[in-house]
Amino acid sequence: NRIADLTMLYFQVVILAATVMLVYYCEFTDTFSPAEQGFICRDPTLTKPNPGPEQNSRVPPVILYSVVSGLPVVLVIIFLFHYNSNNLYEQEKVVVMGDCCYVNPMVRRTVRFLGVFVFGLFTTDIFVSTGQMVTGSLAPYFLSVCQPNYTALGCQDTALFVSQSDSCTGDPHDIFRARKTFPCKEAALSLYLAVYLAMYIMCCVGSRAGRLAGPLVSLSLVSLALLTGINRVAEYRNHWSDVIAGQATGAAIAVFLVSLCYSPNEKGHSTQPLGENSAQSEDGLCVTAQPDRPRVVGEKILHPMTNGGWGGGVGGCRSFLVHEVCPPAYLEQWC
Questions:
Q1: Cα–Cα distance measured from residue 217 to residue 197, given in angstroms and rounded to the nearest whole number
Q2: Among 84, 86, 97, 308, fewest CB within 10 Å belongs to which?
Q3: Tell me, what's the pLDDT at 204?
Q4: What is residue 171's predicted lDDT score, i.e. its pLDDT?
Q5: How far apart are the first and last CA of the chain?
Q6: 8 Å CB contact between 106 and 83
Q7: What is the H or E stretch that residue 15 is in?
Q8: Neighbouring-strand partners of residue 300
Q9: Over 40-69, what HEC string results?
Q10: Can you point out the beta strands (E) in the chain?
Q11: Which backbone phi and psi does 2 adopt, to 5 degrees?
Q12: β-strand 39-40 against 310-311: which pairing, if any?
């Protein structure tokens, strides 16, 4: 149904646009302010030295955000061209989407991968920003930038709890930054990127590049993400609880999106092993077919063969066993 497909497309665009707007208001405006928590005078967990602006970190924001935004694009282009260049001209050139759009299968998969990734990235940012605004958790260096007047507060020798919002005398910008630590945004974004790409690599590479290539690259990405969180604690920018909560948030969103958007049990995708009367669908995905009748794909007909495959020359699946030339449905849906 053309109208239904267009409506769903517009609905998805509206959701993505709303997500971008929320990120903009959380990151670049003062529309939302963090909760102002009190503190205990001379609390040892809040008296770490001020590490300075984020640009002085070992992992500055410009590098972190450049990697988070650029690495998926580079990686997906490399894999798509590497694993599709050999049989690109043997495959169907277009995929009909709702009788309104004609899209190259490679373009479709690229847009889908990057679209889901960007949506998850913005969603992670929104979840983390919301947690920071609601909790108002104090950074390990909070008292160093707050610079409270202990004499005026009457807590020279006692561990008095201070809840006055005007008890700080330091720079307002530094104080505002020190109230936004839980969960840690850098840890969340880095682990979201690592888990999302690791699952993509394991699905696309598998054992085709060797048994250790996929796990090596995946574990390297996850290790770098974990080191990013450890660095936040080592520089006294976040507590351990902030980093763990951020990493859990980023990893959970990545796994959820991968499981939801790339499940092999989606409509039109097969959970049956290929080579057992399988065929390739209109969008380049392998699906289960009826073994006793021809299957129509686009304008070509696939006839059942005695060896369990399908003939007809669609998508490179000629007179061979399907599993020899068609990757599994879960793999083809990613790559």
A1: 9
A2: 86
A3: 66
A4: 92
A5: 27
A6: no
A7: helix 2-28
A8: 297
A9: ECCCHHHCCCCCCCHHHCCCCHHHHHHHHH
A10: 39-40, 95-97, 101-103, 161-162, 278-280, 286-288, 295-297, 300-304, 310-311
A11: -65, -45
A12: unpaired
Q: Please write the tens of the pLDDT for every residue from 177-235.
A: 999 999 999 999 999 999 999 988 887 665 565 678 788 889 999 999 999 999 999 99
Model confidence at 26, in pLDDT bands (50, 70, 90)? confident
**What is the distance between the alpha carbons of residues 295 and 31, in angstroms, rounded to a whole number?**
57
DSSP code at position 314: B
Q: Smallest Cα–Cα separation from 247: which of 258, 237, 255?
A: 255
| Tokens, residue 165 | 């919002």
CA–CA separation, 186 and 292 (whole Å): 55
Q: What is the DSSP string of 176-241?
A: HHHT--SS-HHHHHHHHHHHHHHHHHHHHTTTTT-TTHHHHHHHHHHHHHHHHHHHHHHTTSS-HH
Beta carbons within 10 angstroms of residue 103's beta carbon:
15
Distance CA 189, CA 209 (A): 28
Domain ranges of the chain: 2-261, 278-334
Query: Which residues neighbour 137 within 8 Å (Cβ) at sequence distance 6 or greater?
Result: 37, 179, 180, 181, 182, 239, 242
Distances (CA, A) of 169 to 23, 141, 177, 318: 30, 15, 15, 76
Residue 263 per-residue DSSP state: -
pTM confidence score: 0.75
Residues facing 101 on adjacent strands: 97
Nearest residue to 129 (alpha-carbon basis) of 179, 175, 172, 185: 185
**Which of 74, 330, 76 has its CA nearest to residue 203?**
330
* Cβ atoms of 289 and 310 closer than 8 Å: yes
